[in-house]
Design goal:
By secondary structure, the chain is an all-alpha fold. The chain is 76% helix and 0% strand. Helix 2 runs antiparallel to helix 3 and helix 2 packs across helix 4.
Length: 88
Amino acid sequence: MSTATIKNKERAIDELVSVLRKIFEEPEICAVAMEIARKHLQDEHANVKIADELSATTSVKIPVEHSEADTLFLEMLKDLVRDEQALY
């Protein structure tokens, strides 16, 4: 694995840890994020819609150009909602 690839993976992990810290500091973010993901899960360009609404309504700010960490976070949210829906 190249040095650049390792640095990119480290940066993605650091970004993901930063978002998780915000969620632990402000637990209401989790409920809001899940609700937003539920609302947009089936939409075309769901990641963009979820990111935009999450950025507008919480302290989690996801830029227009999603980083690898942003995409991982958004996919995790959608997976959590899918798992939740599968239980019912």
